[in-house]
Write a structure and sequence with these properties.
CATH class: Mainly Beta
CATH superfamily: TolB, C-terminal domain
Radius of gyration: 14 Å
Strand order of the largest sheet: 1-2-3-4
Order of helices and strands: EEEEEEEEEE
Number of domains: 1
Helix content: under 10%
Shape: globular
CATH topology: Neuraminidase
Largest sheet: 4 strands, antiparallel
Strand content: 35-45%
Number of strands: 10
Number of helices: 0
Length: 120
């Protein structure tokens, strides 16, 4: 929608829960968390709600996507290692790589002005 609340557009339409949307830096894509396949995964759709694709395929929960400032990568949280860890992938879902390895729960990553910032 526009900043004044006008022009609202529905981007997804699925019985699963779609949540935590994040805009790409150029506003052409929106990533979001969805349970549409029975497990929490990360999806990407165009800014007009077409061309939706699944970016992660883990048997465990993936969520909390955040775009890099140049729009080429996404950091996210996953439980695929048995607890909450932070991963990075290309904007198309390729080259997923684990960034943290800690027995405690690492969550809610985001890209800051100077690059990827770990949670506080």
């Amino acid at each position: 929608m526009n900043p004044d609340g006008s022009g609202q557009t529905q981007l997804t339409n699925h019985p699963g829960t779609d949540s935590n949307p994040t805009w790409s830096p150029d506003s052409s894509w929106v990533t979001f968390h969805s349970t549409r396949d029975g497990n929490g995964e990360i999806y990407r759709t165009s800014s007009i709600g077409t061309a939706t694709s699944r970016l992660t395929t883990s048997a465990e929960w993936d969520g909390s996507p955040s775009w890099s400032l140049d729009g080429t990568q996404i950091v996210f949280q996953s439980f695929r290692a048995g607890n909450g860890e932070i991963y990075r992938m290309n904007a198309d879902g390729s080259f997923q790589m684990r960034l943290t390895n800690d027995p405690s729960w690492d969550a809610h990553p985001f890209w800051g002005t100077f690059g990827w910032m770990p949670p506080l």
